[in-house]
Amino acid sequence: MSSIDATRRGASVNRGLALFRAFFALLGLAALVAQLTELVGRTGADKVGNFFSYFTIQSNIIVVVALFFAAGAAWRGHTPRWLDFLRGAATVYISITGVVYSLLLTDIDVNVPLPWVNVALHYTLPTIAVIDWLVDLPRPCIRLRGALLWLSYPALYLVYSLVRGPLVDWYPYPFLDPRPSGYGPVLVMSVLIAVAAFVFVAVAALSTKLAEPRSPRDAS
Questions:
Q1: For 25, 99, 165, 203, which has the most beta carbons within 10 A of its beta carbon?
Q2: What DSSP state is assigned to residue 122?
Q3: pTM of the predicted model, to two decimals?
Q4: Whole-Å CA distances, 126 to 17, 38, 52, 162, 211
Q5: CA Rg, the chain, in Å?
Q6: Is the peptide bond before 185 cis (omega within 30 degrees of 0)?
Q7: Contact of 111 with 14, CB cutoff 8 Å
């Protein structure tokens, strides 16, 4: 058994944290199902593809999955290393969702008409994911070089949105829509969001150093 495996296998059982995670995972799942049901009832099944093409929806799905797995890990007292990376990725993606929505989209129709669902997906889950990350930081720490892999998903999402947009004549967000002013503004906003995403990744990765045990020399 490697030292990393031994460290993670030695994690303590935390039933309170497990229940906390399970509760908010269920809340997120309920919000996603409620919004999808409302959408299908209002427009039919034709818009389901658009629903799952919102970064908000995708990032919340990732958070729900991560919280469910993390709840089981806390209940058993064993967190595998892959789950640390999944939780980190989920925290970064949902942070992007919360910040971008708050700064750019609060007055824009993003097809989330149910007020409680809007609060859950754009405010509650982003906040809970960050809190959960900070109260249970991975040990050993996650290096920034490895954490940079988290940026691959937002990059792929951008490519997906720009390729799919002309095919269905629809874009999930105004700042990704080149039809009004061309691709220049889209490129500028994409770069700005990419820089913000890098900052989120760096903060998430570097924060894990806080969980490293300090040597007696460090403490003196």
A1: 25
A2: I
A3: 0.89
A4: 17, 22, 18, 25, 22
A5: 19
A6: no
A7: no
Instruction: Report residue 113 as tokens.
Output: 């008409």
Burial code (b: 16+ CB inside 10 Å, e: under 16) for 143-153 equals: eeeebeebbeb
Tell me the HSE value of 190 on the side-chain side, using a 13 A CA sphere: 17
Q: Which amino acid is at 8?
A: R
Residues of the chain with pLDDT under 70: 1-11, 212-220
Q: Which residue stretches of the chain are H helix? A: 3-9, 15-43, 48-51, 55-76, 81-100, 115-119, 125-135, 144-147, 152-168, 183-207, 216-219
Residues constituting the chain: 220
List the one residue out of 86, 52, 37 whose CA is nearest residue 157.
52
